[in-house]
Amino acid sequence: MTTEDVKLERVLQGATEVFLQQGYTAATTDMIQKSAGVSKATVYTRYPNKQALFTAVIERQCKLLTHNIIQCLPQSKDILSTLTDIGTRYLTLLLSKEGLALYRTIVAETPRFPELGRIFYQSGPKVVLDQVTKYITQAANEGQLAVQQVGARNAAVLFLSLLRGESQLQCVTHPDFHPTEVLIEEWVNQAIITFRQAFFVGDPNA
């Protein structure tokens, strides 16, 4: 990495810490400069205002949070193993400290800055949905899933919604609650049981 690349990464890391801790409104460029350990000139050279910097933070965090999910699509011909891997990675990232902080910040700021919400959706949730849809389409073409009545995309939406519903609600409404690996595994299994009953063809364990 060049010196400029290092400085840019420090700005983004510092901005991420400040935005996720303070929220968009309370965050200031002075806080970000101090957190990043760079000059104001360095911050403003790359990002002319706070909104531009926040947009970069959203895109960066979404990329980090979706990377692991995309990596496992598909790694196995066994649909149960693949869906379990997807579900576990998805919830682990979604319910992480950083994932929840980003979600809370976006929900709080989107009514005043709708474009930030659109950027978040396009950079994060839509990327995951597109990849899961692609996998479900492939599984359906191979005769493992029957999704003709709803379509592959709606089946993907339902799977991700089954994973996210109760788990994310509990974590968002209870800031001090941190789910264990065992609980995440339970949530994933519950989602897969429901999805399996709706869309699996035959007995996947046969």
TrEMBL record:
Residues 28-47 bind DNA. It holds the Pfam family TetR_N. It comes from the Bacteria. Residues 5-65 form the HTH tetR-type domain. Keywords: DNA-binding. This is TetR/AcrR family transcriptional regulator. It comes from Vibrio porteresiae DSM 19223.
